[in-house]
Amino acid sequence: MAEPSTYYELKDVIKGEVLVGEPMSRHTSWRIGGPADLFVVPRDIDDLREALMYARRYTIPVSVVGNGTNLLVSDLGVRGMVIKIGPGLAGIEVRDNTITAGAGAPLPRLAARALESGLAGFEFLAGIPGTVGGALVMNAGANGCSVGERVKRVTAVDYGGNELHFDRRELGFSYRHSCLAQKRLIIAEVVFEGVPGRPEEIKQRMESYLIRRRQTQPLEHPNAGSVFKNPPGDSAGRLIEQAGCKGMRVGAIEVSPRHANFFVNLGGGTARDVLKLVEQVRRRVEEKYGCKLVLEVQKLGEF
Ligand SMILES: Cc1cc2nc3c(=O)[nH]c(=O)nc-3n(C[C@H](O)[C@H](O)[C@H](O)COP(=O)(O)OP(=O)(O)OC[C@H]3O[C@@H](n4cnc5c(N)ncnc54)[C@H](O)[C@@H]3O)c2cc1C
């Protein structure tokens, strides 16, 4: 493992940002998370490779994040290097029915480009605040659609810096899951396939989804979207609400009175508070319905 003093060597090698002890609360939609030993934002794919080579040379553990909108980061932070895939790998190109997007591209921008290009099938992404890379790992979805259905090919980089290519059938997409999560890969670029559609109809669908989100989700407080996955054939939000958990609180974390599967940070909430509330809600739902809810948010760091 590298001495912290050598972290600064990386600054001379890569063009992007290198931050030491960066609070992860600045990079999660929950505004929760302690410091990352080393936080790197590559400006392009060469930077990404350099960062990985440096990590390998000094046997530094590597974690990857996108927009941090599905992440619960420990209050103790993350040991090793956190690589944020963001604006440096966020290009979007459209050709005929295909859209090639960098893994750091924000999903609302992907949806907007699809609309501009008269391509349907991306409307559901307009209100999901993550990146293309994060969406692929999670197989993000809404309104009966999921991102995996639109994928043609994926370019990823392994932790040794080697480029790998996959097509959709190799990625094992299922409800909020893809086999990318187990592969220790960094997604770099994704080729999607759309369906030609009428822009005014695409726009209408997009707007109706966005209106529904604003009506049903507590977007005024930091949150990480749905905390639990929906159990087969049911909705986690319904079970949590029926179990009487709306408004339950631990510290500054509250089960939203508006949407029971959203836990909101009322200011200064911690990962410890979130996990305590997760256990309390889980216990109540299990006692009432015999159903053990499974976390959708991903834990990162020392728990
Ligand atoms: C208000 C709100 C609404 C939401 N609505 C929805 C919804 O409707 N549907 C839904 O599915 N989700 C929803 N989410 C959750 C979240 O936005 C999605 O899961 C999103 O796809 C996560 O992307 P991200 O870039 O934020 O990933 P992160 O949270 O940063 O990371 C998620 C996981 O992906 C991995 N990862 C990220 N980028 C890469 C990469 N380039 N290569 C390899 N691994 C990577 C991380 O290691 C982590 O395991 C919502 C969240 C919020 C806050």
Layout: helices, strands, pairs:
Blueprint: H1 7-13, E1 17-23, E2 35-41, H2 45-57, E3 62-65, E4 71-73, E5 78-84, E6 92-95, E7 98-102, H3 107-116, E8 119-120, H4 132-138, E9 141-142, E10 145-146, E11 151-158, E12 163-167, E13 185-193, E14 195-196, H5 199-216, H6 236-242, E15 249-250, E16 253-255, E17 263-265, H7 271-289, E18 298-300
Parallel strand pairs: 2-5, 3-5, 4-18
Antiparallel strand pairs: 1-2, 6-7, 7-13, 8-14, 9-10, 11-12, 11-13, 15-16, 16-17
The structure holds flavin-adenine dinucleotide (FAD).
In summary, what is this structure?
This protein is an alpha+beta fold. The chain is built from seven helices and 18 strands.
Oligomer: single chain
Number of domains: 3
What percentage of residues falls in helices of 4 or more residues? Answer: 25-40%
Largest sheet: 5 strands, antiparallel
Strand order across the biggest sheet? 6-7-13-11-12
CATH topology-level name of the largest domain: Uridine Diphospho-n-acetylenolpyruvylglucosamine Reductase, domain 3
Classified by CATH, the class of the largest domain is Alpha Beta
Number of strands: 18
Number of helices: 7
Indicate the structural class.
Answer: alpha+beta
Residues in β-strands, percent: 25-35%
Rg (C-alpha, Å): 20 Å
**Large-scale geometry:** globular
